Every structure is written in C-alpha cells, then in structure tokens.
Amino acid sequence: MTRIKIGLPRAMLYHKYHVFWENFLNKLGFEVVVSPETNKEILKKGTTLAIDESCLSLKLYLGHTEWLLSRADHIFIPRIVSLRKNESLCTKFMGLGDIVRNTFDDVRIIEYDIDATKIDSELWNLIKVFFKFEKNIFKIISAYRYAKNEEKRHKRKELLDQLIQIENNDSKKPTVLIVSHPYTTYDALLGKPISAYLKSQDIEVIYADIAPTEKVMELSEKISHDLYWTYNKELLGGIEFYRKKIDGIVFLMVFPCGPDALVINLCQNKINDLPISVITLDELEGDAGLKTRLESFADILKIKKTKNGKK
Ligand code: SF4
Prior knowledge:
This protein is 51% helix and 15% strand. The chain has helices at 14-27, 40-49, 56-69, 92-103, 122-130, 137-168, 182-185, 191-200, 213-219, 230-242, 258-270, 287-308, and strands spanning 5-8, 31-34, 74-82, 109-115, 175-179, 204-207, 248-254, 276-281. The site of iron/sulfur cluster has 10 residues, from α3 and α11.
C-alpha cells in the first residue's frame, strides 16, 4: 500500500521541532518528505513568492514549501499562538498556514494548533487533526509519547555534547556564542557558513539555543523582566547560561525582523562585558564583506584572550 507523503519544509520551526515531527509522523506510518538544505534556487523561489516586506525566514519557508508541492500529498504546518501563559510568539507562527494557503492554489495542509491560553493540549489537537487518518486514538497517543521521548533524548544529547565541547576547549581558543533562532543558525545558506567560517578562524563556536529550557526561561529575567516573546526569552537565557564560558557573542538576524532588532538592541545596552557582533542577513548579502567582519571580530577576540590570559 502506498503511504501518504507528508512534507516538512526545512525552514522556520522545522529546525526546532524536526525530531518530534519526524518521529511522530513516521510512527503513524506516513512517509515523511523533507525539503533539501536551502540552496540558491529555493531562496530565489521564496523571494519571488513572498511579498517584499516578509522576513527572509518566511521567504525561505515559501521556497521550501514550493519544492515540496509536487513531492508530498500534504504539507505539515503548526499554528503556534502561544507556548506559555502570558507569553506570545512572532505573529508569523500563527499565520503560516494562511500565508501558505494564500500563496499556493492547490496546496493541502495539515495544520495543528498550539495555544497555551486555551485548555486544549498539543496532544488533543494532534488527535483531532490525525483522527481522519488514524481511527485508533491510542496509536496517536503512543506515537506522540514516543516522539516526545525521542525529542527529549535528542535535546539532552545535544546539550551534553556542547557542555563537553566547552569542557574540552583548549583555553587559548576564544569561544563565541551564536545567538539566533535555530532556523537562522542551522540554515545552510544563513548561519551554517558563518559558524564554519568562525571555526576556520580558530574560534570555538557554541550555540545559545542549546541550553536547558526551564533554566533559560528563569535566567532570561536577568536581562529583561518584560519580554514576552518566548523564543527570544529562550535565547536571552542561553546567553546568561553560557556567559561565564564565552569570549564574545555573534547575533545573527534576518532582515527585516522586528522582535530580533528590539531584543538585540536591548542586549547591546545590557551586556557590557563581552564583545558583540551583530550580523543582519538578507537575500542580497554577498559574503566578501561578511568574511572581513568576521575575521576582524575573531582577531579582536584572540587579542583580548591573549591579553587576559586563560579564562
Ligand atoms: S521572529 Fe523575525 S525572523 Fe522569525 S519569523 Fe518573526 S519576523 Fe521572521
């Protein structure tokens, strides 16, 4: 029997939740189709499809979705309104399904809600959505539990690996904390080349998004009490979590992004003990200027590290 193909665009929240989504869908017997790493063609397509005012992340999302249209029966899109009481997210995560529906005529979407302000749990919403494919509710519950456990295991391993990396760092090498959303950090055209270039400059690179969730929410309060965007709070907490172990911070943001512009500005005002570099990425960015900036930043960190001696 041919399996139903469910497409996951390798963009936006895929980079945060892919372990959960892939395991959940596989366990329910679907064939999961993931779009490839971002390439110039996907970027170009996304830029053509999106309205000019869209942030680059959304443009990439549309490019990835377009790639999947002829290869998957449905596109899986979460509609995330809120993950915690009294907190919210960038509105793009609420409207993603509508944006995709308005962009493509013949798209079939599987959309499920996460909204901490409502009584319905994520599991209940998944049951409601997947009941039309799987009438055995216990199978859906079991797939959900399995996928959540796999996600936890994956996160624990990621964190442990990063902590071991910090522990093993030859202390002459400066350590840089990359602070950006996973969909920027781990995108093949956006964050990955930046991490790779810093590493080539003999810089140890670690990531703010790899940190214990509950702890970072608490720590984020040290930088701001008022911030209510959950994903930005997580990143601020990540800075505090690693603050004593790092020599500098690289903020990566895509253009245009209101929440990040505000939060980065806040950090620049509040963090005075570490060199900070802010890199704004857009679809026009050539990498020559970028490399020069990263090289100078790496040099500053190395000079500072030599002056200060070992941490
Ligand atoms: S937070 Fe910024 S980059 Fe992310 S989706 Fe919203 S506008 Fe785009």
